[in-house]
């Protein structure tokens, strides 16, 4: 921080100078920071990202200078960026992307455009030989496409996108364009081809994104069968997301849905045997469908898992107070077997929740007495119970009162 603060002050100074139209000094500071900070970062801990902030600030000011610069200065800045971009010190930390953003602002001649394209093509060729090069290649291609679009050369940009549609980012652009044009057949075909590529490359996330697009197309065309097909697939493939459950439900009438819902529940039980995920998924369905008796049964089956019970108990407190108290009692006693202050604090929090349930105050007092007898050798636990439930602290016997009482009754 001691080093970063003065560097950041310099970056702010450059911004202030630019605001006063002192471009030459602002540019000199920006260049100094852009060139030196990547070297400094190599010998320091920048886990808090301070050096990255300095670079971002410097590049932002540089970008504003480039945007406003007259043609002659743009030429000088273009030459500067062309010479700096390939240097390894920028690529080590991802700063080279900021140079790519500059080029479309700085190109004013066909020769500069040629140099820029050659630089991009050269970098792409270098990246092709590296593992996991797709991201870098797409980034470089986007820089070229951005330049063409800024120059209002949409046909050339589109041709470049089309030529590289094997990359999901560019295929996605083509899909979106087709959807805007309501050319849904083309959009769907592009998605299906994308699925084949994603499966071949074993990119599950990308494959999933194409299914989402196909579902979007189905919704736009009101294709009920397709909406059902892809909503169900995405529900099971996307950690049982409620979004897709509701999309599926929306395609059925109130009479049709209960039977279809039971099919989903049966499929869940078959495909995800046991475990918290299965129970949580079923719980959410029971809540959505207001199957509260089935939710209670689910909590009773999993009564040893108090955190699970606690997550859904509030849906049942009014309807089944006695049953929920019983579940809390069993769960909190099981939970309290473990030791540690965090455990004891959690126990206290659970007991406080129990007190708010009908009949809970008496039950909590009973459980605390049970803990005082069973775990009296746990001073930390007793301390936390005393702090949270002072009304349950046992009162010491007053022997003087006992003696006075005995004397009054003349027992001796």
Quick synopsis:
It is built from 23 helices and no strands. Helix 1 packs antiparallel against helix 2, helix 11 runs antiparallel to helix 12 and helix 20 runs antiparallel to helix 21.
Mean pLDDT: 90
- SSE order in H/E notation? HHHHHHHHHHHHHHHHHHHHHHH
Task: Please state the overall shape, judged from the principal axes of the Cα atoms.
Answer: flat
Helix-and-strand structural type = mainly alpha
Describe the largest sheet. none
Task: Tell me roughly what share of residues is in helical segments.
Answer: over 70%
Number of helices: 23
State the end-to-end distance.
82 Å
Strand content: under 5%
What's the count of strands? 0
Q: Give the oligomeric state.
A: single chain
Walk me through this protein's architecture.
- The protein contains 23 helices and no strands.
- 27% of the residues are buried.
- The chain starts with a helix and ends with a helix.
- The protein is mainly alpha-helical and 412 residues long.
- 75% of the residues lie in helices and 0% in strands.
- The chain has helices at residues 4-19, 23-41, 50-68, 71-84, 88-91, 96-106, 110-128, 134-150, 154-163, 168-180, 184-200, 204-220, 224-237, 242-249, 257-271, 275-288, 292-301, 306-312, 321-335, 341-355, 360-374, 379-388, 399-408.
